[in-house]
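Input (structure):
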């Protein structure tokens, strides 16, 4: 597994070097019908081609591919899930985007709680790597030589009043609207960039809650269970926080297909307990 993590970290370096290549749209759409950036497709290609060559894993699922790729004669049975560039609509305005990765012992259509490692590489003013592989959550910063140096160990989510609310307010469902109103009354400050990985990095280090709820017309939400919710969910949970779909722990959900989507509440346990209570009350009353 360490060979695989080191390989993926190396790919982060390559992807980082790609931002000067192009900020253009690719003119194609992914399986969610979303417009792809040239860099989305390029990063996807870098990761898949590299992983195929190393034969370090058996299964690869990425946000840009419609099916799970199976490698012949793999050295291990590992499965990886990858969002090659999360938040890519922000590339052309130079805001932080990232690569999100989850590693399973085998097939990737498995509950998030069975992941053996999760990591993301965040391309901001600094390039950082956040990893949870059974030994607490760690941060690394890329230096001028392109090497990742450990900067924080056993990261724990602090208690703080930040909220990152996705979706349009006019479409909020009643329990979610009540939750957001309560956070605002409590003085939570708004922090939403349009890049889940960047927003969650902030919540991990500063506290609070990220929400991309189910909303009118899209009750299942927008974010992807395999590529976004589960890897980030493992990291925030291992840091003492929680992730929920508003009813239950997302890491307990068995995916039915690679393009499953889910409402997301991720952050401090206090906030996650509150939304679960509000949704349960709205259903019982
Ligand atoms: P991609 O750039 O990988 O498609 O993901 C963007 C994203 O899924 C997530 O990173 C953001 O939180 C969310 O979409 C933003 O969505 P809105 O544009 O609807 O606010």
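Output (sequence):
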């Amino acid at each position: 597994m360490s060979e695989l993590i080191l390989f993926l970290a190396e790919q982060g370096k390559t992807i980082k070097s790609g931002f000067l290549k192009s900020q253009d749209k690719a003119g194609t759409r992914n399986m969610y019908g979303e417009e792809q950036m040239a860099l989305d497709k390029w990063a996807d290609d870098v990761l898949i081609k590299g992983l195929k060559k190393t034969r370090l894993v058996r299964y690869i699922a990425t946000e840009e591919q419609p099916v799970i790729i199976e490698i012949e004669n793999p050295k291990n049975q590992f499965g990886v899930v990858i969002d090659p560039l999360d938040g890519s609509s922000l590339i052309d305005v130079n805001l932080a985007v990232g690569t999100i990765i989850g590693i399973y012992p085998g097939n990737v259509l498995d509950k998030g709680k069975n992941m053996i490692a999760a990591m993301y590489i965040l391309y901001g003013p600094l390039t950082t790597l956040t990893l949870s592989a059974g030994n607490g959550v760690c941060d690394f910063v890329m230096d001028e030589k392109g090497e990742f140096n450990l900067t924080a160990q056993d990261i724990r989510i602090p208690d703080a009043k930040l909220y990152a609310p996705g979706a349009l307010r006019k479409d909020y469902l009643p329990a979610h609207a009540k939750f957001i109103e309560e956070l605002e009354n409590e003085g939570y400050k708004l922090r939403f960039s349009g890049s889940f990985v960047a927003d969650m990095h902030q919540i991990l280090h500063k506290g609070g809650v990220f929400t991309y709820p189910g909303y009118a017309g899209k009750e299942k939400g927008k974010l992807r269970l395999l590529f976004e919710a589960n890897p980030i969910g493992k990291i925030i949970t291992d840091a003492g926080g929680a992730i929920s779909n508003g009813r239950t722990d997302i890491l307990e959900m068995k995916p039915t297909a690679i393009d499953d989507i889910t409402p997301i509440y991720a952050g401090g346990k206090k906030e996650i307990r509150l939304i679960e209570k509000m949704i349960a009350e709205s259903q019982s009353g």
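Notes: The two ends are 48 Å apart (CA to CA). The mean pLDDT is 95.
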